[in-house]
Amino acid sequence: MRGALSWPFLRLYILTLLYFSANSILNVIIPLKGAELGATNTTIGVVMGAYLFTTMFFRPWAGHIIQKHGPIKVLRTILIFNGAALILYTFTELEGFIVARILQGMCTAFFSMALQLGIIDALPDKDRSQGISLYSLCAYLPGIFGPLLALGIWQAGDSSYFTVAMVTIAILTGVVGYSASIDKKVAEPAPGQTEQGATMLGSVSQLVKNPYLCKCSVLMLAASIIFGAVTTFIPLYAVQINYGNAGIFLMLQAGTVVLSRFVLRTKIPSDGKWRSSFMMGIMLILAVAALSVSFSSVGGAAFLYVGAILMGIAQALLYPTLTTYLTFVLPKTDRNVLIGLFIAMADLGVSLGGVIMGPVADHFSYSFMYMICAILGVTMIIFAYERSKKSSAGLR
């Protein structure tokens, strides 16, 4: 096989699957552990949000470092710190989880940027969207089995199972990561490229100044707030619904993401053109998903699971579509850093989904909180609209 499905890239996808397996377990264990210890939704949201808030902070810097030193060197270094973070979870309580989440967030910033930028640089234009989609697919694949495994570990009441899971994932990720490779002829930065790129502080201003980056970042930020609210509070919300099960919800959501990204990977635009109807359709699906989850408190588990499927479809299409679009319209000299800023907005959104929506759930209800998410999704349908126009080739 060639292109995005060749063996070197398949090995990167396997590494991605292993790396994010830990988080699919932690996303269930941490809220349940917090509730057991008497923590409020606000506290649980802060602990969960610390992970991607840290990731957001380090992503632009990660893009700059990777552009300078290449993805493989960075990847092999960061896997050591990731292993330490996973082991830290096994012998600490909620306070220690915050430290582990921060360390893991830093690792994820460098890990995901190294793999995504390596894939973007190593693949030809026609295969770029497929490579990004397959990476994203493998990042979500653990969400199919991880939540059910986490619930099994939790219900067993034996902490040794959790320890074995974290240590095993840390070891396997390190072994596969150190054997991974990316074609150095195309993946290494060109001589002098880092000096030509914008400075880090100057690049942050592009979130406002660059219309393409601004539009994509706002859409990703808003959508990620909804995704974050679901990830953080579904383990606690599902138990309030008749026949509701957080493991089934997260499994359906992740399974839909995986299936949709594989089936629709060739349908994602890979030509640098903005398609308003396509993006508005994605945001409509997301808004209906949040509304369905909200209504499940009255309508029952059927609405909860329909919301999971619709949420998965929106997740499957949104991120690779926006990322692929940006790889065409952003200036090449600064592309790695600017894409890092865009992904940082996704991280910020997921973090805010826990931090902001936690107090809303505390003062009102989970159902009301997800209704707010649905309203946010509707506003993004309008924001996604844009009159048809050609992307500026001068920005490449």
TrEMBL record:
Domain Major facilitator superfamily (MFS) profile, chain residue ranges per copy: 8-389
Key words, A-Z: Membrane, Transmembrane, Transmembrane helix, Transport
Key word Transmembrane helix present: yes
MF-aspect GO terms: transmembrane transporter activity
Entry GO CC: plasma membrane
Membrane topology value: Multi-pass membrane protein
Ranges annotated as spanning the membrane: 12-30, 42-62, 74-92, 98-120, 132-154, 160-180, 218-237, 243-264, 276-296, 302-330, 337-358, 364-385
Record bears the keyword Membrane: yes
Protein location: Cell membrane
Protein name (Swiss-Prot/TrEMBL): Conserved hypothetical membrane protein
Organism: Brevibacillus brevis (strain 47 / JCM 6285 / NBRC 100599)
Organism classification: Bacteria, Bacillati, Bacillota, Bacilli, Bacillales
